[in-house]
Amino acid sequence: MITTNLYYLRVDPDTRNDKGSFVEDTVYKLMEIEPSGWALICHDEASCHYVDPDALRELSENDR
Q1: Segments forming the whole domain that contains residue 57
Q2: Is residue 28 packed enough to be buried (19+ CB in 10 Å), middle (13-18) or exposed (0-12)?
Q3: How many domains does the chain have?
Q4: Residue 1: pLDDT above 70?
Q5: Distance between terminal CA atoms of the chain?
Q6: In this structure, what CATH number is given to the domain that contains residue 24?
Q7: Strand pairing partners for 22?
Q8: Separation of CA 45 from chain center
Q9: How confident is the model at residue 2 (pLDDT cuts 50, 70, 90)?
Q10: pLDDT tens digits, residue range 5-63?
Q11: Residues 26, 43: contact at Cβ < 8 Å?
């Protein structure tokens, strides 16, 4: 399921990805939410992570 809207997000402090590594505190784009329940977020083409969607916080336009 790919979203058609862009959502700019930050992760909660101490968020870990699906591999158990901490995720950098920066701005991400929500790419999709997998049927398995993981949210795919990307900072750029080389930096993407699968995280728990409950750890995401949407940013206002002023915070981007």
Answers
A1: 8-63
A2: buried
A3: 1
A4: no
A5: 24
A6: 2.30.30
A7: 16
A8: 13
A9: very low
A10: 678 999 999 999 999 999 999 999 999 999 999 999 999 989 999 999 999 998 876 66
A11: yes
Please count the other Cβ atoms lying within 10 Å of the Cβ belonging to residue 11: 23
Residue 17 lies in a domain: yes
**1 part of a folded domain:** no
Residues near 12 by Cβ (< 8 Å), separated by ≥ 6?
55, 56, 57
Q: Quote helix, strand, coil % in the chain, to nearest 5.
A: 10, 40, 50
What local confidence, expressed as pLDDT, does residue 63 receive? 67
Note the pLDDT of residue 35: 95
